[in-house]
Amino acid sequence: MYSTGVVISNLTFTNSPFWAIHPVYCSYVHIKNVTILAPPDSPNTDGIDPEDEEEAGVDTYYGATLDEMLDLDHQQAPLAVDDTPLD
Predict the structure, then answer these.
(1) Catalytically active residues, by annotation
(2) How would you class 20 by CB atoms within 10 Å of its CB: exposed for 0-12, middle for 13-18, buried for 19 or more?
(3) In the chain, how long is the greatest CA-to-CA distance?
(4) How sure is the predictor about 18, in pLDDT bands with cuts at 50, 70 and 90?
(5) How many CB atoms lie within 10 A of CB 75?
């Protein structure tokens, strides 16, 4: 929470029980080369769920068997999304 210049990159998250990546009230967040995998029967497994981010970006992101790949329900500012395959 309340961080600036956050970089989340080159990671794989597996079997996340809930939201895998949930940055809150941060500035200049860049998420790159991230894979998020969840079991098919997992409830409410959002991949990336930014909340009130300023200057956030997602680049090259892959998710499988997620409830929502990218949940923007709580995002107020524009979010840049590049090269994100949606399965």
Answers:
(1) 67
(2) buried
(3) 35
(4) confident
(5) 16
CB of 61 closer than 8 Å to CB of 87: no
Give the pLDDT of residue 83: 55
Query: Tokens 């979010």 — which residue?
Result: 79
Pairwise CA distance, residues 27 & 4, whole Å: 5
Q: In what order do the strands lie in the sheet with 7-14?
A: 7-14, 27-37, 54-64, 79-82
Buried b (16+ CB within 10 A) or exposed e, 33-61: ebbbbbeeeeeebbbbbbbebeebebeeb
The residue to which tokens 């998710």 are assigned: 63
